[in-house]
Design a protein that fits this description.
mainly alpha, two-stranded antiparallel sheet
Length: 209
């Protein structure tokens, strides 16, 4: 088996185009409603009505063609117009969400825009939590050493791919965070190695009664 992760990409633009084409076709006259006998062993069914039109499932052939993308192949990239329209819709939806939160919590101010330093900080916090930081007092830290390694490697990929395209402050923050999490990883793996090399301790002798 290959170590590379496998995933299936669904091209939602093709699904949308198939639905629009189906809606443009003349619909057959509605059939008279008939009382359907309940099937044995069938569970509850969800019926969704939208205005005067009855919800119809997508044709099986169109759904199967749109949902399955051959492994190793990616759908065509969205056009510039599709990207602009999606970005505008996303910004509008995010603004409505922020307005809703601020209406329920007037003391909350406007959220600052998300930038590159937020991404670096997110990776830093994730890596430190995976290495056991942030555990409550009296509780044993839970360590995900393999997850921490993956997060640190992602930081390394980020540093490699953004080289020469960052401001001085962004580059300094990224390198500092990468240095800290790698040092924490080295210390933790050293402790794990020492514990693995130590012989198991015998159980304490029980007191004679």
């Amino acid at each position: 088996m290959s170590d590379n992760p496998k995933f299936t990409v669904i091209d939602r633009r093709k699904i949308k185009a198939d639905e629009e084409q189906e809606n443009q076709q003349p619909s057959a006259p509605p059939a008279e409603p008939k009382a359907a006998a309940p099937e044995s062993g069938s569970g509850p069914r969800l019926v969704v009505s939208e205005s005067k039109h009855e919800a119809r499932p997508a044709p099986p052939q169109a759904a199967s063609e749109a949902a399955a993308v051959p492994e190793g192949e990616m759908p065509a990239a969205p056009t510039a117009q599709e990207s602009r329209e999606q970005k505008a819709a996303y910004d509008a939806s995010a603004q409505r969400l922020e307005d809703l939160v601020r209406a329920q919590n007037p003391a909350v101010g406007a959220q600052p825009p998300v930038g590159f330093l937020h991404l670096v900080q997110q990776f830093y916090v994730s890596a430190m939590i995976q290495m056991g930081a942030g555990a409550q007092e009296g509780q044993r830290p839970r360590v995900d050493i393999l997850g921490a390694r993956a997060t640190i490697d992602l930081l390394g990929v980020l540093a490699e791919k953004t080289r020469g395209n960052l401001t001085e402050a962004e580059e300094s923050a990224l390198q500092s965070v990468l240095f800290e999490v790698r040092m924490a990883f080295l210390e933790l793996t050293s402790m794990i190695s020492l514990q693995a090399m130590q012989p198991p301790q015998p159980p304490p002798p029980q007191a004679k009664r």
